Amino acid sequence: MKFSEILNITLINLIENKFKVILTSLGIIVGAATIIMVIAIGKGGEEEVKKQFAGLSAGSIYINVDFTNPNIDIKKIPKLDEEKMEIVLEDSKNISNVALNISGSASVKILGKDDYEPIVGVTDEFDDINNFKIQFGEGLNEEHQNKSEKVCVLGVNVAEKHFANAEGAVGKKIKISGKTYTVIGILERKGDGIQGISPDQSIFIPYSTGYKYVLDKKYTIPQGIALVKDINKVEDGMRDVKDSLDYIFDDEASNYMVEDAGSKIEAALASAKTMNILLMSVATIVFIVGGIGIMNVLFVTVKERTKEIGILKALGSSSRDILIQFLLESVLISSVGGILGIVLSYLLMPLTKYLGVPVLFTIDGKIIALLFAMITGTVFGFYPAYQASKLKPVEALSYE
């Protein structure tokens, strides 16, 4: 029998039983849609992580108090300061810049309304190291730091929250802890932050001003950040920083931990990929269930069409022709399920956006889902097709 004839017979059977085809392929439809959504969520998660860390330099090294140490006494712990950070810079041939920041919350009065906002005191090198860019106005500089001036830069979310538009906030006066500050700039949007700081949600003031007027010296712990000259020398830079801390703090150096931005990014991406693998496992299980459904239906179909198989064999169809016919039927059913699954994934897109789930639909996801569907139909349809091909014409024609 010619392949075109086999295909024609298969299509006629599928068209005449279209509702059964749709019901049979339900598992495949759900599986295909699940795989596409899983890949989209996984890709979206990875892109979100990359976006969140986009502003970080992979050459940044963070110096933070190790709060996992149960013996730490915040009041007595020796603290970083500008002089100590200068030692870190001078002692290492791998470090190009250093900065300090302190953070906390304070009462803020903007346009007559009282609020409570995160306040971050930073040295003038902080913006450059963290790739902070000013969207409107200007940033904090060395003069502001040296004179402990009462000026501030607003994160974009803070500006939009309190002012009609972010640009309009520049030049306005606000009160922080009862003292008047001038808004000199607005940061570009940054996404998630670093060292527990969310730039979009914070108000930045000079480091010296923060220590002098806003944040409690007893409980505020300065955090350090260093930038390596060469991205390939991060490990050497970290080793240099640790050596400097050992020299500066002696036995107290164990109170501090040194981390690099690259490892944070890799850890976040690894977490996103792990979640993607778990979701893919769920989608695979759904496909297997769908494949078993196809196999069961084909077994029933073989029983129902036993006489038809006997007639085809009596007319000269070979076992190979019967095998191809039923296998083709299985693949077409699963392919229909795959295509309908792709359509379903498009219908689910608005729901994911409504729920705020980051998704990134790619052509790869759709191709993988369709291939998965076809492979599932082939694997699970083979045995019923093989059983059909082995029926003897006489037994098939006499089957009741």
TrEMBL record:
- GO CC term (a single one): plasma membrane
Domain named MacB-like periplasmic core: residues: 22-215
Q: What is its main location?
A: membrane
Whether Metal-binding counts among this entry's keywords is: no
Keyword Transmembrane (UniProt): yes
What are the ABC3 transporter permease C-terminal domain coordinates in residue numbering? 281-393
Q: Where in the cell is it found?
A: Cell membrane
Pfam families xrefs: FtsX, MacB_PCD
Membrane topology of the entry:
Multi-pass membrane protein
InterPro entries, per database record: ABC3_permease_C, MacB_PCD, Macrolide_Exporter_MacB
Where exactly are the transmembrane stretches of this chain? 21-42, 277-302, 322-347, 367-386
Name any one GO molecular function: transmembrane transporter activity
Q: Which UniProt keywords apply?
A: Cell membrane, Membrane, Transmembrane, Transmembrane helix
Name the family the entry cites.
Belongs to the ABC-4 integral membrane protein family.
Name of this protein: ABC transporter permease
